[in-house]
């Protein structure tokens, strides 16, 4: 009986571990996205593997590395990379059309400081990023999973935040943004409950949108509709 109970617990834990914070809606690539993906993925992209990356070798320099989780169609990430050649940008996105869109922007803009992996960010962090390797992690407008029964799918939760803490260097920044007030409150509560983080907000809640975070078309549309946007920035104090 004890062995059966133990096996049941193991199965439940494995199921819980595999709960995704995203739904893979692949969609079809446009001709431009597909051609950029085929042309540039061998140069700027890489496959998931269960071993730590040598980020200095990956980018060909030792510039600080910014990881963006879920870059969507890539407009914000491409703009940041163009504006900050002194930084390296590692983009994580599960949707291939989004990857193709980013690479099309890279082909047009000529950014060389971007690398891309199309895989689950949690597994990339766990297996491909060494401890203390990142200078900043960006999570802009993740799926809010607004229905209460889906809150377990929200990516910002205790185990994820603890994992990020290990991967960030001393003084590294975790920058989040959302247009769902309930999710902003959730993010704030999760971060305040964890040890080792310093809230960069002067009011101990949210920060004004930093100038270096581009405003996306999605965000502009939300502003026209009267939606709010909340930015949170926390520093890893090790």
Give the helix level as a range of percent. Answer: 40-55%
What is the first-to-last residue Cα distance?
44 Å
What is the highest CATH level, the class?
Alpha Beta
What is the CATH-assigned architecture? 3-Layer(aba) Sandwich
Quick one: overall form? globular
From the 3D structure, determine the CATH topology.
Answer: Rossmann fold
Q: How many domain regions?
A: 1
Strand content: 15-25%
Segments where pLDDT lies below 50 for 5+ residues?
Answer: 1-17
In order across it, which strands form the biggest sheet?
3-2-1-4-5-7-6
Function: Catalyzes the formation of N(7)-methylguanine at position 46 (m7G46) in tRNA.
Catalytic activity: guanosine(46) in tRNA + S-adenosyl-L-methionine = N(7)-methylguanosine(46) in tRNA + S-adenosyl-L-homocysteine
GO molecular function: tRNA (guanine(46)-N7)-methyltransferase activity
EC number: 2.1.1.33
Overview features:
238 residues; alpha/beta; Rossmann fold; 7 strands; 9 helices; seven-stranded mixed beta sheet; 41% helix; single chain
Describe what is shown at a glance.
Catalyzes the formation of N(7)-methylguanine at position 46 (m7G46) in tRNA. It is an enzyme of class 2 (transferase). Helices cover about 40% and strands about 20% of the residues.
Write up what this structure looks like.
The protein is α/β, with parallel strands linked by helices. The chain has one domain (30-236): Rossmann fold (3-Layer(aba) Sandwich). 41% of the residues lie in helices and 18% in strands. The protein contains 9 helices and 7 strands. The chain has a 7-stranded mixed β-sheet, with helices on both faces. Strand 1 (65-69), helix 4 (75-83) and strand 2 (88-92) form a beta-alpha-beta unit. Helix 2 crosses helix 5 (96-109) and helix 4 (75-83) packs parallel to helix 5. Mean pLDDT is 89; it is low at 1-17.
